[in-house]
Amino acid sequence: MGLDRSEAYEWGVLAEELAVEHLVREGYAIRERRWRMGASHAEIDIIAELPGVMVFAEVKARSPYAGETREEWAADPTSPAEAVDMRKRRMIARAADSYLRMQEQDYDYRFDIITVLGTPDDYILTHIADAFIAPVSSR
């Protein structure tokens, strides 16, 4: 398939929208989208809330490779999550720490990954709750 840069960007934006719709259906309150910590490159795709729990969600989208059948790309819907490496996790944790410090109350927190694999017309969304652990000292 092979998406060019603008198509890949558009697919990523749509994947984030699909992730937000999923979270809202599941009862999450969306607090922020694409939240940035000051001028840094640390960005959190979605900050959502369940009662007493702040959820920092990273969204990863992937399109099928050229010639790949639906059965092949659907066999591992979590594969885009592998792109959330240790460096990315540290950046998310730093941004989450900054966000939590700005809150007036303490929250439990967790880090989720939401993968969207496929095309805008045919995709699999997978929500991996508590996808990784990163220490945050919010107070």
Blueprint (SSEs and pairs):
Layout: H1 5-25, E1 29-36, E2 43-50, E3 53-62, H2 70-74, H3 86-101, E4 108-119, E5 122-132
Parallel strand pairs: 3-4
Antiparallel strand pairs: 1-2, 2-3, 4-5
Number of strands: 5
Which CATH architecture?
A: 3-Layer(aba) Sandwich
SSE class: alpha+beta
The biggest beta sheet is recorded as: 5 strands, mixed
What are the low-pLDDT stretches, counting only 5+ consecutive residues below 50?
none
Mean pLDDT: 88
Question: Regarding quaternary structure, how should these chains be classified?
Answer: single chain
Q: And the CATH topology?
A: Trna Endonuclease, Chain: A, domain 1
Element order: H for helix, E for strand: HEEEHHEE
Through-space gap between termini: 47 Å
**Beta-strand residue fraction:** 35-45%
Number of DSSP helices? 3
Helical fraction equals 25-40%
Could you tell me the radius of gyration in angstroms?
15 Å
In short:
The protein is an alpha+beta fold and 139 residues long. The chain has helices at residues 5-25, 70-74, 86-101, and strands at 29-36, 43-50, 53-62, 108-119, 122-132. It has one domain (5-132): Trna Endonuclease, Chain: A, domain 1.
Comma- or semicolon-separated keywords:
5-stranded mixed sheet, about 35% strand, about 140 residues, Trna Endonuclease, Chain: A, domain 1, 5 strands, 3 helices, alpha+beta
Can you offer a commentary on this structure?
The structure is a single chain. This protein has three helices and five strands, in the order αβββααββ. By secondary structure, it is of the alpha+beta class. It has one domain (5-132): Trna Endonuclease, Chain: A, domain 1 (3-Layer(aba) Sandwich), CATH 3.40.1350. The longest helix has 21 residues, at 5-25. The mean pLDDT is 88.
